[in-house]
Design a protein that fits this description.
The protein is mostly beta strands. Helices cover 15% and strands 43% of the residues.
């Protein structure tokens, strides 16, 4: 019997080929080791470490299923190289991207860093699709690692952040990338006369968008607590869905009587929802004994109950979520709006409702600024936990 070719241990430089015609590549790094006889991969994006354990080897082929998200790699082991495709099962078109990873290369972008010049440090006012009717605003937060040309950062928007980006100053250009199993992001822009111009943002092989930025530490987005509002405070919140064990759950259940409740409108496919779920899992452990309850309403990208349950269960197990997650078996923001008709609109997953003990809405928070946003995340945690303490006391 032919022995399977084991992938080599070490650090890999991986690339997704976004455009074969131009050779445009999205790079990231991972470390490959073994847990017993099974390979284990750790993907690195700035401060984030994503441990990937669902790896199956058949002869010289590897099938790598990403944690939480319904995406996978199908690869061949060829010497020190892994070659194949990343497949995004959420997409029907352009969902298969060529992939290659070479062991022994710890670079992300291959250009050598120049003389340190931390020109991107700070907060920037960003415009995506500038000069068009679909233009939208964001805040770019960039940091030069130890004043070198290596850069980390993210973009904050009114619907969430772009999570952990890592890259480099190359000449007069900024290059950043991220791969987390859902996001496959590449950003580039030129630095000219103190501004970022001629920017392009690529999401996988299916989307690209221009962007530009000016340095503006005073620029602010809309307050996330003012985007979605309660249009009819007299309308009670009412829903009835099954949890992952098949039990029907409503707000009228004794478990929630006379308790403040956080309602999380989310989906396991949503990276910002993943970050929020990881945070709320810890919040629930801290405040559950005091009376806090949390209910997640999962709007998956499938109406198949068995598939939706499996996808949500992976999220639950990944982060040790002990609060109820209900399967709505509906998809999209319009359906979320129908489930919660007392709100004027739902513009984002996640959208989070904070209810007092009488189950009246006291705050609706749109989007989620996760740990990659640094101080913005810390401020959100602080204000959220102060509100929880108040709701428990009142």
């Amino acid at each position: 019997m032919m022995q399977a070719k084991k992938p080599k241990t070490g650090t890999y430089r991986a690339v997704l080929l976004l455009d074969a015609a131009t050779g445009l590549e999205l790079p990231f790094n991972f470390d490959l080791g073994y847990k017993g006889k099974k390979p284990l991969i750790t993907i690195r994006n700035a401060d984030e470490r994503i441990v990937v354990e669902e790896i199956r080897q058949v002869k010289d082929s590897l099938i790598i299923k990403m944690p939480v998200f319904d995406t996978e790699f199908r690869l061949k082991v060829i010497g020190d190289t892994l070659v194949g495709h990343w497949i995004n099962h959420y997409r029907k078109e352009k969902n298969k991207i060529p992939f290659k990873a070479v062991c022994g290369d710890n670079r992300r972008f291959t250009s050598d860093p120049g003389k340190p010049d931390p020109v991107f440090e700070g907060r920037w006012e960003v415009t995506f699709s500038p000069g068009t009717t679909s233009a939208s605003k964001a805040i770019g937060v960039f940091h030069h690692s130890e004043q070198t040309d290596f850069v980390t950062g993210t973009f904050l928007t009114e619907t969430g952040d772009y999570r952990y980006l890592e890259g480099q100053k190359i000449g007069n250009q900024l290059w950043l990338s991220c791969f987390d199993g859902s996001h496959a992001f590449l950003f580039k822009a030129e630095f000219k006369d103190g501004a970022l111009v001629n920017g392009l943002f690529y999401s996988g092989a299916h989307w690209q968008e221009p962007w530009a930025a000016i340095r503006n530490p005073e620029f602010k987005l809309a307050n996330p607590n003012d985007i979605t509002l309660v249009k009819d405070p007299a309308m009670p919140i009412s829903f009835s869905f099954q949890d992952l064990e098949g039990k029907t759950v409503t707000l009228k259940d004794q478990r929630y009587t006379n308790k403040p409740v956080i309602i999380q409108v989310m989906g396991s496919w949503c990276p910002n929802c993943m970050d929020e779920s990881a945070y709320f899992a810890e919040v629930y452990k801290q405040y559950r004994a005091a009376g806090l309850e949390i209910i997640a309403l999962a709007f998956e990208k499938t109406t198949d109950q068995d598939k939706a349950r499996k996808q949500v269960l992976r999220l639950k197990q990944r982060f040790g979520i002990d609060y109820a997650i209900l399967l709505t078996l509906q998809t999209g923001k319009d359906k979320a709006q129908e489930v919660l008709p007392m709100l004027n609109k739902i513009t984002s997953f996640p959208t989070t409702l904070f209810l007092n003990k009488q189950h009246q809405v006291v705050k609706v928070h749109t989007g989620f600024s996760g740990p990659a946003t640094g101080n913005d995340y810390l401020l959100f945690k602080q204000s959220t936990e102060l509100l929880i303490q108040k709701l428990l006391k009142d």
